[in-house]
Amino acid sequence: MKDEEWADWVSYHGKLHRMSDKSDVEMMDLWRPVFEADHAGLQELKIASMAISGKTWRTEHLETLLANVRARRLAEQQRAEEAARMAQREIPCVECHNSGLVEVIHPQSMKDGRWVWPHYTAVVACRCSIGAVKLTQNQATRAQWDDEESSGKKHKTGRKVAALVTLDEYEKNFPTWKAMQIDREAKRLAEQTARSATKHADKTRGKLADPVKQIIERIKQRQGS
Ligand SMILES: [Zn+2]
Question: What percent of the chain has pLDDT over 70?
Answer without folding.
Answer: 99
